[in-house]
Amino acid sequence: MILVMDVGNTHTVIGVYQERQLKDFWRISTDLKKTEDEYGILIKNLLMHSKIDPSEIKAVAISCVIPPVTWILDKMSKDYFKVTPLIVGPGIKTELSIKTDNPKEVGADRIVNAIAAYKIYGSPIIIVDFGTAITFCAVSSEGAYLGGAIAPGIEISGEALVQRTAKLPKIDFVKPKSAIGRNTISAMQSGILYGYLGLTTELIKRFKKEIGEDALVVATGGQAELIGRECKLIDKINPFLTLEGLRIVYEMNQ
Length: 254
What we know:
This protein is of the alpha/beta class. The protein has two domains: 2-87, Nucleotidyltransferase, domain 5, CATH 3.30.420; 97-239, ATPase, nucleotide binding domain (Nucleotidyltransferase, domain 5). 39% of the residues lie in helices and 25% in strands. The protein contains seven helices and eleven strands. The chain has helices at residues 36-49, 67-80, 108-121, 154-164, 184-211, 224-228, 241-252; strands spanning 2-7, 11-18, 21-29, 59-64, 86-87, 97-98, 125-130, 133-139, 144-152, 216-221, 236-237. The strands form two sheets. A six-stranded mixed beta sheet has the order 6-9-8-7-10-11, with helices on both faces. A five-stranded mixed beta sheet has the order 3-2-1-4-5, sandwiched between helices. Helix 1 crosses helix 2 and helix 3 crosses helix 7 (241-252). The relative contact order is 0.15. The mean pLDDT is 94.
């Protein structure tokens, strides 16, 4: 079995694959204060709760955007699972040529998403990841990673409204009954949902003009369902795209 870990700035998604089947997955808070022992005990408990024997884990693949956590998870993998993890970064095989100005600065999560989308759906393809930040990535018909766009995530914007205003409350991100909000909460929900829908739609349109109108668009990340159901330009919603990418990258490097 392969343990895969996608570590974002806010959340960490953990999955276990048996060959190409995702046996189970978990979503936890990313905590920079956790030690390798705390992560090790937590992950072993999650595995056992799902009736997965931790001794069956024969490989670990990690995508992490926080360097200090990368080191902690590397040590945790060696101490608790007795394996040297594959950590996505410079030097690993991806089968994608990266055409950005500085390939080394492209986030591991973006590369993993691009590989998964390219392998599963083909190209040209546009990947939208609704995480702490919303990232847009483009892969050409020749299989080249061209770059993308980065915008503040939905949760960041909601938190900024609450923190920077005196009366606006924290809200749940759900679709309001109408665009014209009749109270503060529905007005905030409308502004956030339809504002981000407009942002997403406009960027996808501009990407398509540059890489081809036939480009498929796949969405992933925590808010993918919410926006994906409303955006007519999103063709596929794949909540496990990054986990699939980690499995694929691991297989490429064996």
